[in-house]
Amino acid sequence: DAKTTQPPSMDCAEGRAANLPCNHSTISGNEYVYWYRQIHSQGPQYIIHGLKNNETNEMASLIITEDRKSSTLILPHATLRDTAVYYCIVTPRVGNQFYFGTGTSLTVIP
Amino acid sequence: DSGVTQTPKHLITATGQRVTLRCSPRSGDLSVYWYQQSLDQGLQFLIQYYNGEERAKGNILERFSAQQFPDLHSELNLSSLELGDSALYFCASSSAGTSGGEQFFGPGTRLTVL
């Protein structure tokens, strides 16, 4: 499985967009990018995933670079409830056990 | 609410003991995954079952075992417990087997070994 690199922590002002980067330079052609978040010690929550096209859902947008070596998760209007650890996971669609790294601890500041 | 349930929420036991953690997947999901989250190791994949059969193994100790029953619920058995087994144990389910898909996580079981 490809390794991912994320900044350990980030701050974002409430109401502003939060842009969380992830590097996955060794990603393979059949590997997807998944984003999850974990609020305190709750179960990880699925946010979004993509292969090579940009994706958007009600929670967030995922921007994947053309070479697929990095991606950015965008929370368009961050709220205090978005304070969490965000994990970027790269995994093949087939037999996709998730290997979580250390993630990015996002703090939304009032 | 992800639709995945786990029992018990908390478990306190002593070293050397054996415990069983239970997971009920979302309705219709055939795959169940178990993960362990400890302070020093982060979230680690343990094992996956698909429709009753073991599909993949991760960093699961030999003292740990799991199974998935015909009604698709799963149990994780931890034996000869050590202090280092204290952790959060999460179960996740997905609708896919080897074809992948997003996983939905339960609220976890917090195990404390004294």
Description:
The complex is a heterodimer of chains A (110) and B (114). By secondary structure, chain A is mainly β. Chain A is built from no helices and nine strands. Helices cover 0% and strands 47% of the residues of chain A. Chain A has a five-stranded mixed β-sheet with strand order 1-9-8-3-4, with no helix packed on it. In chain A, strands 2-7-6-5 form a four-stranded antiparallel β-sheet, with no helix packed on it. In chain A, a hairpin with a 6-residue loop joins strand 3 and strand 4. Chain B is globular. The interface between A and B is medium-sized, with 23 and 28 residues.
Supply the key terms.
heterodimer, A: 110 residues, mainly beta, 5-stranded mixed sheet, 4-stranded antiparallel sheet, 47% strand, B: 114 residues, 7-stranded mixed sheet, 53% strand
Task: Please give the structural blueprint.
The complex is a heterodimer of chains A (110) and B (114).
Chain A: E1 9-13, E2 18-23, E3 31-38, E4 45-50, E5 55-56, E6 61-64, E7 70-75, E8 84-92, E9 104-109
Parallel strand pairs in A: 1-9
Antiparallel strand pairs in A: 2-7, 3-4, 3-8, 5-6, 6-7, 8-9
Chain B: E1 5-7, E2 10-13, E3 19-24, E4 31-38, E5 42-50, E6 53-57, E7 64-68, E8 74-78, E9 87-94, E10 104-105, E11 109-113
Parallel strand pairs in B: 2-11
Antiparallel strand pairs in B: 1-3, 3-8, 4-5, 4-9, 5-6, 7-8, 9-10, 9-11
In angstroms, what is the radius of gyration of chain A? 13 Å
Mean pLDDT of chain A: 92
Amino-to-carboxy terminus distance of chain B = 31 Å
Fraction of residues in helix of chain B: under 10%
Structural class of chain A: mainly beta
Helix/strand-derived category of chain B reads mainly beta
Largest β-sheet summary of chain A: 5 strands, mixed
What is the global morphology of chain B?
Answer: globular
Flag low-confidence runs of chain A. none
Question: Termini of chain A, distance in Å?
Answer: 37 Å
Q: Output mean pLDDT of chain B.
A: 92
Strand content of chain B: over 45%
Give the strand content of chain A: over 45%
Task: Tell me which oligomeric state these chains represent.
Answer: heterodimer
